Amino acid sequence: MSDITKQSLTELVENIKNKKLSSTDVTKAFIDRSEKSEKLNAYITNDFTSALDKAKKFDQKPNFDLKLPGIPMAVKDLFCTKNIKTTAGSKILNNFIPTYESTVTENIWNEGAILLGKLNCDEFAMGSSNETSFFGNVQSPIDKNLVPGGSSGGSASAVAGQLTPITIGTDTGGSIRQPASFTGIVGLKPTYGSCSRYGIVAFASSLDQAGPMAQNVKDCALLHEVISSYDPKDSTSIDFKRNHYSKKLTNNIKGKKIGIPKEYRVDGMPKEIENLWQKGIQYIKDCGAETIDISLPNTSYALPTYYIVAPAEASSNLARYDGVKYGFRAKGENLIDMYEKTRSEGFGAEVQRRIMIGTYVLSSGYYDAYYLKAQKVRKLIKNDFDEAYKKVDAILTPSTPSSAFKIGEKTNDPVSMYLNDIFTVPVNLAGLPGISIPAGHDSKGYPLGLQIIGKAFDEQNILNIAYAMEEKINFKNKITDWWIK
Ligand code: GLN
Fold it and tell me: Which residues line ligand 1 (CB under 6 A)?
């Protein structure tokens, strides 16, 4: 069967189950394409040899009852994988080999999937362009001058470039949805507490969530039902009844009420984004749903709030990297000198910036003025959504304020880099689910995404809306293969 790598996850599962393809065929096809993708720099570590072994073993003793039978899959290098190097894109973890597996990846392997390798990402998931990785930047399969977005840039490039049929990323402020939008794929940030954070290298613990990135909504729903589970090993994991999201997927969204928040019409937003949004509103109406103008009055405070809360939590989480317990250690004259040198040499500039901001806002003199204030504003942002959801079932916004930008374009201007997440960050602050779906192209032919935000634990609803819209939009990604060796 030709063009294996062009098939969706759902098709591959079907074809393996009815024996039109073996796991070995599929795994080989994705390895072949991955081996030709060096220029994208999507992988940090590959595990191709053992992936092929595992595929052969699966074919000898297949289990077709599994949800991901013999499906190869690469994952973001932020998920701890037992006995396989896990770097978080950082020099400080360059030699870290976990002795345990993250719950989310464990769930994936338990359903029959096979690890292809670990995908590049911004250092400790801090970034919007995958340019902060110690292992070099990732390029977009759409155009060699473009960033794939971040921090799950390797994951986005790998799915859009068909190096893996599907993947998982993490999203603290937009890192699944923004790169999905930049590369023309689907990305879901689940409700906080639905996917276990156990074994995910921590960035900002009250915001981090794992989620699927896929070619289409159905694939996304299927992977979400695999990764979402209650986990006693994560104290913030929530015990609620999970759906068979893919089975229950329906494009019937008649009568749904979709909110259009006026505050997401930000200054300087390109006309193309506004047009895309209007098209989205029309698609919603074409599906028989209704749109309602709403207000989320505290939206403009979301980004400053995030850039206090996230660095504060990061500075605390990253205190563990001291050269003693994990990874890289620099030589020092004494213990303090060793700590200092390890952290100055082991962390990149963006991570150091966040640690400094975080330490500052948590310091005794500034805690009340910054951190405590930010927590209060965070609550107001959450209240805005609660108020809106009294009137609507979901909210439609653009995913990003622009299409993908050029490599190097924003590296010297952190604030303009941070502005990328203006539409995604409020969702993390409120702990809600959000999905980005590809919805069109700008005049340069680059993909643009629309975001659907749901009520907490209402993933099924936003997946259904995304599914219905996807059918109407009929998006075709323009992958140029400029990078194929
Ligand atoms: N771009 C945002 C940041 O740099 C979000 C990152 C993320 O979601 N991991 O903090």
Answer: 125-128, 151, 171-175, 203, 310, 421
* Backbone dihedral angles phi then psi of residue 472, each to the nearest 5 degrees: -70, -40
Supply the pLDDT for residue 2: 55
Cβ distance 200 to 175 under 8 Å? no
Q: What pLDDT score does 442 carry?
A: 96
Distance CA 438, CA 274 (A): 15
- Residue in the block written with tokens 């250690």: 329
425 CA closest ligand 1 atom index:
5
Cα(107) to centroid of ligand 1, in Å? 25
Active-site hit among 54, 67, 76, 218:
76
Span 316-334, mean pLDDT?
Answer: 95
16, 70 Cβ separation under 8 angstroms: yes
CA–centroid distance, 203 to ligand 1, in Å, is 9
Is there a catalytic annotation at residue 151?
yes
Distance 150 CA to ligand 1 centre (A): 7
CA–chain centroid gap for 105, Å, is 14
Mean pLDDT of the chain: 97
Instruction: Please indicate whether residue 175 is annotated as part of the active site.
Output: yes
Mutate to test the pocket of ligand 1, among 77, 119, 172 (most ligand atoms within 8 A of CB): 172
The enclosing H or E element of 375 equals: helix 373-388
Can you list the domains of the chain with their CATH numbers? 4-255 (3.90.1300.10), 300-377 (no CATH)
Q: Global pTM?
A: 0.98
| pLDDT tens, residue by residue, 331-370 | 999 999 999 999 999 999 999 999 999 999 999 999 999 9
pLDDT digits (tens, 9 = 90+) for 361-407: 999 999 999 999 999 999 999 999 999 999 999 999 999 999 999 99
Distance from the alpha carbon of residue 52 to the mean position of ligand 1, in angstroms: 34
76: annotated active-site residue: yes
